[in-house]
Each structure stands twice: as structure tokens, then as C-alpha cells.
Design a protein that fits this description.
single chain, 8 helices, binds magnesium ion, five-stranded parallel β-sheet, 2 domains, FAD/NAD(P)-binding domain, elongated, binds flavin-adenine dinucleotide, about 300 residues, alpha/beta, 19 strands, seven-stranded mixed β-sheet
Length: about 300
Amino acid sequence: MKNIDFAVIGGSYAGLAAALQLARARRQVLVVDAGQRRNRFVDAAGGTSHGYLSQDGRAPGEIAADAREQLMHYPTVEWLHGSAEDARVASDGRLEFRVGTTAISAKRLIIATGVRDELPPVPGLAERWGRSAFHCPYCHGYEMDAGRIGIIAASPLAQHHALMLPDWGSPTLFLNGAYTPNAEELAAITRRGTQVETVLIARIDGVADVVLQDGRTLTMNGLFTQPRTLMSSPIAEQLGCAREDGPMGLFIKVDEGKATSVANVFACGDAARAAGNVTLAVADGAMAGFGAHRGSMG
Ligand code: FAD
Ligand code: MG
């Protein structure tokens, strides 16, 4: 059994920011990471991340790699590549889990495991995720070059995209049987200048060409949709952390200091908020690091 003061599960933006604060407080911290960042699809497409100060337009993997490199300069940090599994609260209150055959026991645990996106089952959409299909207008709307934008409805949240995206271009909302606006919603969407298409989508072709079941093809600069978010890891559930239901999916309930409902367990980043981005993950992570550190001084 490997004993450690602080363990961070998830070594992306939120987990790295948490670990950095603990490292700078000269604490022993183990970061466990499976290397499956939510935005890795952007890296695979050769794309860039937007909106995070001083890193706007950089590859998301480079931002994370720089942060990790700086973190690893601190002598009290240890990195373990792998997936944390089978978490439990031991009878003495320590937090135990396993990475492969290594059993780990931590006094305090920070969960920064993120979420994964469940896309609507539109043929050709998953292949374009992070390349020409996205969910967040603030992250990727600008790159639509104020051109034609396809909104693929996956749920009633499509309404928000239909109302927002005219600020970034000329949107067409493809209802695709996933959302039926009522008269009031339809009037609001139309007033914003968003076109509404009711014919079902057959598939996505090319960069962002929407092929309809009636044979028409509508060429778009890019696409937006509303994935469900699923927690990437069952660690929080295994420990009994209370969760909250957000519009996109479940997330871990935390207080202002990022403490969960389970003693000595903290959570940050996408896993612990209704909707996230890199900036918020870093801020949450820093707060979780402070919270976990303060909680260790009693
Ligand atoms: P993640 O970055 O998802 O990292 C979680 C980490 O935890 C992963 O490395 C994962 O492997 C690890 N992990 C999970 N479970 C375990 C386990 N059991 N054991 C060990 N490790 C585990 N945001 C922006 O600000 N700007 C953008 O331009 C932008 N573009 C995006 C484009 C796309 C296509 C997508 C999907 C998202 C985009 N985002 C963007 C959002 C951004 O990716 C997330 O908000 C951010 O990654 C959240 O950081 P996080 O640290 O909470 O989680
Ligand atoms: Mg997270």
C-alpha cells in the first residue's frame, strides 16, 4: 500500500492547477492521470483552444503539457500514468483506490476527472467532433468566420444555441426530431434570424455539409450540437459524493472551497460544475488545492 498525503485523480487543467498549489505548499502530492482530456479531439484535428488568457490559439495538449512540465519541477510531486479504480473510504477515514496493481491510500483526495461527451447519433458527426463540430460558441464560434453555422439539435438546449449563435454567423437550426420548439420559442428563434430546418439529417459530409433525408445538401462553415455530459469516472460515486443534476448531466456537488459531501474529498473542473471550460477548470483546481491544503491544518 502506497501512503500519500494528497492524491489528485485527473491530471489535466483542473488537476494540474490543484496539484500546483499543493506543490508550492511543499506538500507530497501524487497525480494520477489516464491521459484522456475532454478536448483531445481538437489536438487530433490539429486545432486550437480558445479563450484562456495568454494561451489563446494554442493546441490544448500543449497548454496541458507546459503546465505539467512546470509542475514536475517541484520535488514533492509524483506522477502516475493510469486509471484510478475501486475507490473507497477506509474505516480510518483515509481514501483508498487502486491504479493497476498499485494500491494507494491518501489522507486527502482531489477529484479532477472531467466529463465525456455523448453526441447525438448523427452519422459523420463524431468524426468531426473537435474538428468542425463543437458545443461551445465562446470557444469555437469566432472561427466560423461569421459564415453559415449548422446547429444540430440533440435536446431542447438547442434553443439556446439558436438564440446565441446569430452573434457568430448565420445559423440554421436542424431540429432533426430531437427538439420541437413551441410557438413562442419558434418566434424568438426566428426573430434572431436563425433559419429552422425540419427535414431529418441523413449524414454529415465534407467539412460540415449537412445532407438531409430529402437529398438536399446544406454547406456550413461548422456545426454546433448539445452533447450530454457523462462523468468520466465512477470514483466520486464509489466514495459516496453527493451529485447534482445539471442541464447537460450529473456533476459532483461542491462548496465554495471545492469540498464534496465526503470528508477530505474535493472536486474541481468539468466534473464538478454544470458547464466548464479551461479557464474555469484552472480556477476551480486552484481553489480545490487551497481548500485541501487548508483542511489539512486542523
Ligand atoms: P479534462 O481536461 O477532461 O481532464 C480530465 C482528466 O482526468 C483526463 O486526463 C482523464 O484521462 C483523467 N481521468 C478521468 N478519470 C480518471 C481516472 N479514474 N483515473 C485517472 N485519470 C482519470 N475549453 C476552452 O476553454 N476553450 C476551448 O477552445 C475548448 N474547446 C473544446 C473543444 C471540444 C471539442 C471539447 C469537447 C471541449 C472543449 N473545451 C474548451 C472544454 C475543455 O476541454 C474542458 O472544459 C476542460 O478540458 C476541463 O478540464 P478538466 O481538467 O476538468 O477535465
Ligand atoms: Mg475535472
